[in-house]
Amino acid sequence: MSHSDAERAIGQLVSTLQQDLQRYTGISVTEVVKAGSMGHGTTVPGNFDIDLVLYSSNVEGDNVRDYGYGSYLKKLEEFITDRRVFGWGTISNVSTTRYAVQFKYQNNVDVDLLVSPVWWDYSPNRPDKFFLYLRDKVPNDAETRHRFSVNASKWQVAFMKSRPSKVKELITRAKAWRNRLWPKSEGGRGRPSSFLISLLVLRAYEKKENQRSGYASNDERRTTEQLKSIVRNHRSMDIYWEEYYQERDYPTLLQLRTPRLVDPANPANNVYLSGIGSYSKNQRSHDYADCGDGDWSEFERKVEQFDLEKSVQEIQEPQRRYYY
C-alpha cells in the first residue's frame, strides 16, 4: 500500500465514523483528530499507523477521571466489529486496551481509536479549559493525570504540523533508527515512544539553529550531535515549550524538578517518564499505553548509533550501498 492509498483509506474510515457512529452507538462526533505518525506527517515508509481521536460531547471528563474509558471503548469495539458497517476483511486484529480500540484497517493500516471529551466552547484552538480541568478536578497523581494524555491530541497535532518540514524528515529518520534498534518482534526495555522521539529531535534541531554560526552547516549532522548530547545528559534535562501555556500559569501541573520533557500541549505530562518503558514481543506501540518507567539506560546506549545523515532507505536496508 502506498502512502496516498493509506491516506485515502483513513479518509474513508473517518467518514464512516462521522456518518454512522452516533446512529449505532449514541456517541456523537464533534471532531476526529488524526494523530500518530500519519497525523503528524512523520510516517516511516511501510509502517502505516494512526491514532484517531474522537472528541465527543457524550464523553464526560468526570466519568473518565473516575472510571476510565471502558464504557466508551466497549461501544467503539462493537461498532468496529459490526458487519452492517464494515464488510468482511475490512477490519482485523481487533483488541481493546485501557485507552484505545486497536485494529488493522484494510490489512495495512494500524489504527488506534480513542475518545476524549470536548474541551472547548468557542475557541477550539486553545486548550485552556482542558488545563483548568486538570488543575482543579483531577487528583495530583501520575496515573490519573496520564489517563487524560490522549485529550491533548488536538493541540499536539497542531503543534507538530507547524514545525518545519525539515524537522519532520529528521523525525522520520530517527523513528526509523528506533524501529531498527528496538525491533517489535524481539521486545525489550527502553524503547522511546514516537512522541518522545519527535520532541527530542525537535529540540535538537532548535538548539542546532540557535548555535549556528555564519557558515553553512550540515543540518543532519548538527542535529544528530545535539540529539546525542541531549540523551547523554538526560538526567539534567529541562525541556518545554510555551506556545499553549506559560510555566508560571500552571505551577501545580508542571513537574518543577528535573529531569523533565514536558508535553507542549499538556503541562501535566512529563514525556521524560511517560515516553519510555518496557514492551513485549510484537506489542503494538502506543504513546498512551502506560505511564512509562523513565529508564533511559538502554536509550542512552543505543542513541550512539543514530545517524540522521542517512536516509530512511539506508537505515532500513543497511546491507545495501547507495550512491548519489
- Calculate the terminal CA-CA distance, rounded to whole Å: 27 Å
Q: Could you name the ranges where pLDDT drops below 50 across 5 or more consecutive residues?
A: none
Order of helices and strands: HEHEHHEEEHHHHEHHEEEHEHH
- Sheet with the most strands, sense and barrel status: 5 strands, mixed
The CATH topology of the largest domain: Poly(a)-polymerase, middle domain
Residues in helix, %: 40-55%
CATH architecture of the largest domain: Orthogonal Bundle
General shape:
globular
> Beta-strand percentage?
15-25%
**Total number of helical segments?**
13
Overall radius of gyration = 20 Å
User: Count the strands?
Assistant: 10
Which strand order do you get reading across the main beta sheet? 1-2-5-4-3
The level 1 CATH classification of the largest domain is: Mainly Alpha
Q: How many domain regions?
A: 2
Query: Structural class, judged by helices and strands?
Result: alpha+beta
Mean of all residue-level pLDDT scores? 89
Q: How are the elements arranged and paired?
A:
Layout: H1 3-25, E1 31-35, H2 36-40, E2 49-56, H3 61-67, H4 70-80, E3 91-96, E4 101-105, E5 109-117, H5 128-137, H6 142-146, H7 153-161, H8 165-181, E6 188-192, H9 194-210, H10 219-232, E7 238-239, E8 260-263, E9 266-270, H11 271-274, E10 276-279, H12 297-302, H13 312-316
Parallel strand pairs: 2-5, 7-8
Antiparallel strand pairs: 1-2, 3-4, 4-5, 6-10, 8-9
GO molecular function: 2'-5'-oligoadenylate synthetase activity; double-stranded RNA binding
GO cellular component, one term: nucleoplasm
Domain 2'-5'-oligoadenylate synthetase: 143-271
